[in-house]
Design a protein that fits this description.
Layout (H helix, E strand, L loop, with lengths): L9 H16 L5 E9 L1 H8 L13 E8 L7 E8 L12 H23 L7 H4 L3 E8 L2 E11 L2 E11 L10 H35 L16
Parallel strand pairs: 3-4
Antiparallel strand pairs: 1-2, 2-3, 4-5, 5-6
Helix pairs in contact: 2-3
């Protein structure tokens, strides 16, 4: 385990802390976690939805990790992660609180767009069924990991909140702290598999509703506000 007592860039911090943890603990073949400057496709589609097809398409906002549910027919993006800055002297978080806040807002927008991309497809389901779909994100600030959750509850309202938080130990002497990280990531993996079932059930319910008209067409009220 590397020591986090000195200065590290954002990329160095990401590849020596959160990347090996996720890579070793997330073992399900149902979840693909991609690392780097990864574009959120749901956000890209939302940003270009009302644009002219003759104009250059806008890029989706990028995150450091994106988790895709491989068994879902739409390859639903259910997890997003962001590392906010590197480490300064003595291993203290280098990023300012403004950057931390802006990265958190970016994650919120991407999570909302991911939910919207699915809910727009499902017009023949109840709002209760729509509210079962949950997306997750995490934000790393120094050696602190914060995990967030979001769902849709109707009338263009989304719930966003802190799910859990933990810290990465600075060196081998306190590596027993990693047990907390392990438990949280294993729980997160379990929650993502539950989201996979919710997505598949929602799509199936929408197909049935469309075919036999059990539920009348009922479009979800979504929030699509965005900055330029």
């Amino acid at each position: 385990m590397p020591s986090f007592q000195g200065m590290l860039t954002e990329e160095q911090l990401k590849m020596t802390s959160s990347f090996p943890l996720f890579n070793r603990i997330f073992t399900s073949h149902h979840i693909q976690h991609s690392w780097g400057e990864i574009q959120a496709l749901s956000n890209k589609n939302a940003r270009n939805e009302k644009s002219s097809p003759y104009k250059k398409a806008r890029m989706g906002r990028k995150v450091d990790i994106k988790g895709t549910l491989l068994k879902t027919s739409d390859k639903f993006e259910a997890l997003f992660g962001e590392v906010t800055g590197g480490l300064g002297p003595l291993g203290v978080a280098a990023a300012c609180h403004k950057k931390r806040f802006l990265d958190k807002v970016k994650l919120m927008v991407i999570m909302r767009d991911s939910l919207n991309s699915l809910l727009k497809e499902c017009d023949y389901v109840s709002d209760e069924e729509r509210s079962n779909v949950i997306v997750y994100s995490w934000l790393q600030f120094g050696l602190e990991l914060n995990f967030y959750v979001m769902d849709w509850i109707g009338s263009s309202i989304y719930r966003f909140g802190l799910l859990d938080r933990c810290r990465i130990p600075v060196d081998d002497e306190y590596c027993n702290i990693l047990e907390d990280v392990y438990c949280i990531l294993k729980l997160l993996e379990k929650k993502l598999l539950e989201t996979e079932k919710s997505v598949m059930n929602l799509l199936l319910s929408n197909t049935r509703g469309k075919r036999i008209q059990i539920t009348l067409e009922n479009k979800a009220e979504l929030n699509n506000n965005r900055s330029p």
